[in-house]
Specification:
The structure is a single chain. By secondary structure, this protein is an alpha/beta fold. α3 links the parallel β3 and β4.
Length: 201
Amino acid sequence: MNVQPAPVKVLIADDHSLFRAGLAHMLSSDPRFEVVGQAKNGVDAVEQTLARKPDVVLMDLQMPELTGVDAVKKLRREAPEVKVLVVSAYAHPAVVGEALASGATGYVSKDVTFEDVASHILDVYVAKRSKSRAWRGELSNRELHVLKQVAAGLPNKQIAQRLGISEKTVRNHLSRVFNKLRATNRTEAVMNAMRSGMLIL
């Protein structure tokens, strides 16, 4: 007889009610998850986490009253057993890096599919993502130089001008970087490189 594993208890903290409600609906429809709370700001996120004890908190970085980074720091002190997955659409890599350094377990962009979000939650829950995820290869010096410009917030055109190469070459380098770091976007590539020690900002 197969025993279904207990669902992962998730709390969603985001000040955009439409995104928060939509994600809560999708997670609640998936038997792998149980949504135990929704918070509209950082203070509410911390209070609900302490009261409802979720397994994973999905934490938006840009929230009123208490930022996502500050909320992560508070939860690190007051509820260290809770895993925090930071979520953002436009966060600068340095801000995401600060959240990870403050105790967040992972990062996911808002412009991914629901299954990507679900996969990130499960990875964070079992706390294996940063420990067992193997990269496909080391970055070359030129790929690392390109990624450093990405981390500084430069678009491809400016990266090309700064490094004296074409935009197409920049795109080719980034394609290889994404593949090697198993990243789906620029911010995730920077975060994975920082986490692996390849890149220090």
